[in-house]
TrEMBL record, chains A, B:
Transmembrane segments: none annotated. The gene is thiL. Keywords: ATP-binding, Kinase, Magnesium, Metal-binding, Nucleotide-binding, Thiamine biosynthesis, Transferase. This is Thiamine-monophosphate kinase. It comes from Parvibaculum lavamentivorans (strain DS-1 / DSM 13023 / NCIMB 13966). CDD domains: ThiL.
Length: 338, 338
């Protein structure tokens, strides 16, 4: 873990970055022998026997991927979880992570402590540790990035490509909550029920990576990814790489009670459900004869999986239909961050 | 490789980020099967048999770690090389990397193309590939981070800890050039000889990671790191973790012709040599009976290694002496980025 400016730099009266790293981050590395207490230049990792290493990285910018007044604990958890979600969708089990923080000079030590506390809480939840990182200062918006490292049985990583016409399309959990939650936070969506509003906001701020579900899809799903760009856009990604088309039945798309309430009041919000991002659910394709296996995985992991459509020939394109079988025109096919 | 904003976002008339990734970055992943052409959510890696994975990450902020008007090719190479330098100092051989770019809306496509060209050039030089990454936009200074992944024979990674009193202290190449080069770029150091000035600037902009040297130190050096914070500060890091002191003979510290010329004109620049950072040479400790082995490694790799001091008892502290054996007072023990 390198702090790229020196103690004598002062940092406007806050503790030196070396001391901060020691204080805030070293406890996050305590569980990982290969992190060397963040006192070396690199981390060491070996996956379990007959496993391969899976790596992914995602960055978040204040004002783009999170709101500047989001609590630091949830910013930390979101940063970690969006990456764990990528691993889960590939069938990988998370092991550790590297962290880069570009904080502002005026970022308070309290904020940093909250950030570290959020990481610690999730580390315990997901059984992972901090292995290393870098700390820099920016005059621009806070920018955070995280490299997550996991492992998967050799040859078993679930790819985006691999879906075949005739495969069932599934999604875990519920879709659209995060996009609606962002609308609530921006004051663009009025939710009279405060519990519903809180549910949507939490889903936006703290995605739930399906780490208990994804690894069980190895050898079961033909293709998978996590829904970050939006249901239809991400389905398009699978189709593009797999060389298939897809047809989604919008009435099958699983919605939370809060999302159903929002849609009941304004049916146009279906576009936020189909096109909104940040769900971090696993979207996957599997042959119909694996339906009972998928049901068993859902039961074991306590995470629902709903069949929402069918993979088709590439020439059919990617479409959403309503209950009567009519195509729905969805303007907002991909999610644009605010 | 995820682009975190959508094509319809427009991005001020420049090609969409998806298209840019395709265009600029996909060729950088061509050599790595586990990168899946940057069309998946994660990369897959297995080290060679009986090897472990070594991971490191470093970030650079425009105006802090590089100058906003540095050529994009050299910014790319510096970003890659500072990370390869960490791997080399650990005895690891680089294999691939993940890249996060936080570009500004006004960052030109030409700049990005230059950046990618710089990466490609160095990939070919170091035998590595891009495995994945993330692209975001910031309203602040451009921020770049890179996770480098390498491999080392199991159990052979060279740590910071491990130095013992009586070990010889060595450094590869020459020290101080980068700090002096930064002074040249900032107009703070006048070098009448333009070749000398160009040498110093190049050493600042394009560090030379000692990838041909570092892996040969496995089983030879007791401890190593790369000089990024400054010679004395980094020596202090080794001593801190190893529980030793150290004494450097400043007259033994290897200097380039350009650095010697600068010091001849202004002897006070010795502080930039001892305290300046960004050298990215390997500083290491090894027992005296390995001197001939180290000489052979230097000859094989074509990279010089100079004995500059001795590890001592911790109670002796970390000091620099002149040719007469007198302690030199060095104010600037650590490097502060501009």
């Amino acid at each position: 873990m390198a702090a790229r400016s020196k103690p004598e730099g002062g940092n406007g009266g806050r503790p030196s970055e070396f001391a901060l790293i020691e204080d805030l981050f070293a406890p996050l590395a305590a569980g990982a022998p290969g992190a060397y207490g963040l006192k070396d230049d690199a981390a060491l990792f070996s996956p379990s026997p007959d496993h391969e290493t899976v790596l992914t990285v995602d960055a978040m910018v204040a004002g783009v991927h999170f709101l500047p007044d989001d609590p630091p604990e949830t910013v930390a958890r979101k940063l970690l979880r969006v990456n764990l979600s990528d691993l889960a969708a590939k069938g990988a089990t998370p092991r550790g992570y590297l962290l880069v923080t570009a904080w502002r000079a005026e970022t308070s030590v309290d904020w940093m402590r909250g950030f570290a506390a959020g990481l610690m809480e999730d580390q315990n939840l997901f059984g992972i540790s901090l292995w290393g990182g870098d700390t820099v200062t920016t005059t621009g918006p806070m920018t955070l990035s995280l490299t997550a490292i996991g492992e998967v049985a050799a040859g078993q990583m679930i790819r985006r490509g691999g879906a075949r016409p005739g495969d069932d399309i599934y999604v875990t959990g519920t879709v659209g909550d995060a996009a609606l939650g962002l609308s609530v936070l921006r004051g663009a969506l009025d939710m009279p029920d405060t519990a519903d509003a809180a549910h949507l906001v939490r889903r936006y701020r703290e995605p739930e990576p399906r780490t208990a579900f994804g690894p069980k899809l190895c050898g079961v799903a033909h293709a998978a990814l996590d829904v970050s760009d939006g249901l239809m856009a991400d389905l398009g990604h699978i189709c593009e790489v797999s060389g298939t088309g897809a047809r989604i039945n919008m009435e099958s798309v699983p919605l939370s009670r809060a999302a159903r309430a929002a849609l009941a009041r304004d049916p146009r919000l279906v576009e936020a459900v189909a096109g909104g991002g940040d769900d971090y659910e696993i979207l996957f394709a599997a042959p119909p004869d694996r339906a009972s296996k998928i049901g068993a995985i859902a039961a074991e992991s306590g995470i629902s999986a709903t069949r929402i459509g069918t993979m088709t020939e590439q020439s059919d394109g990617v479409s959403a239909i309503d209950g009567a079988g009519n195509k729905i025109a969805l303007k907002q096919l991909g999610y644009r961050h605010f």
